Amino acid sequence: MTEYLRAEDESRALELLHSRGLTDGLPVVIPTVDRVARLVLATGLDADVLLGEMGPGNGAATIEKVAIAACMAGCLPDHMPVVLAAVQAVLQPDFDLTEMQSTTHCTAPLIIVNGPARHTCGPIASGFGALGPGHRANASIGRALRLCMLNIGGARPGESDMALLGHPGKFTYCLAEDEENSPLPPMHQDLGYLPDDSVVTIIGAEAPHSVIYSGDADDPEDAHKLLQVLAIGLANMGTNNAVLTGGGAVVVLNPEHAGIFVRAGMTRSDILQGLWQATHYPKEQLAYFAPAFAKRFHGQEYRCFDRPEDILVLMAGGSGLYSMVMPSWCAGANRNRYVSQTIVTDQFCELPELGADA
Questions:
Q1: Distant-in-sequence, close-in-space partners of 351: CB < 8 Å, separation ≥ 6
Q2: pTM of the model as a whole
Q3: In 55-186, at which residue ranges do the beta strands (DSSP E only) sit?
Q4: What digits encode the pLDDT tens for the residues 336-353?
Q5: Less Cβ around it within 10 Å: N or C end of the chain?
Q6: CA 225, CA 231: separation in Å to the nearest integer?
Q7: What SS3 state is found at 229?
Q8: Mind giving me the DSSP string for 285-343?
């Protein structure tokens, strides 16, 4: 049952929400009955439709509660298909949401958007600064998921969310793949979806780690060297990927770095295979830093990732020296694997423009 709060004006309403621990620490849009109803209406679904239970508090993720979080985050009606798909994704058992919310690791759900929804539900930025400020859809959609995790899932810092420090992606963490400019097929196609499908793919990830590489088209080892530096970022001895192993991770190539691989005749599958091979390490290296973890492995070599396909590779951002890698948590029953969810747009209602005084 929805609890209604009352305040004399929006300023007092904001302070009431802050005092009750219902915000992420930043100012929010006050979720008035009319504003929330507008977002619910945009979904084409009834307010009490249940998407699932959200851990660790096992709160009921209804359409109305998700709409409340989306309103607070600043979402427009157009953003709702992606917000709902993101919530459905993290509610999949394979995502291990309860465990991820409760770990001491800094993990946060990274939302990657593919397909036509990048434009029809946004626009969701994929170019310069896509993970930074200035992009309303990216910021609002990622923030809506976080507010769901706080207020429906009940993850409170130091109480049920035990991340020792966290990272800024725990406010919002969302981008699209730059499909139009990428020399690689869209990521969702290589995950088994159709080109015209809209898909969110979500993985619990650390903050982006910058990887610098200056390409040289005359160097026959150019692509190999780039693989090596990306692998160092993904699974160096300070990451869970190198110590706990068996999880997933993300590589966001900038256009220049994507071009290096394509010039070498490499497909996404080749890139994944190369990264996987480059993160096979000598057991003695792990034993030096973490002997208790090294005891799990037999032989002289161990693998940071079980399969090449456990690594996600996409192209986004501006062109230049820097790509980004996102190591992950590698724990939980499913080892922090990524999950994907189709974005459903045909059931959503087109709403008339609000008046200036609405």
A1: 38, 41, 42, 77
A2: 0.96
A3: 59-62, 108-114, 174-176
A4: 889 999 999 987 766 666
A5: N
A6: 10
A7: helix
A8: HHHHH-HHHHTT--SSEEESSSSGGGEEEEE-S-SSSEEEEE-B---TTTTT--EEEEP
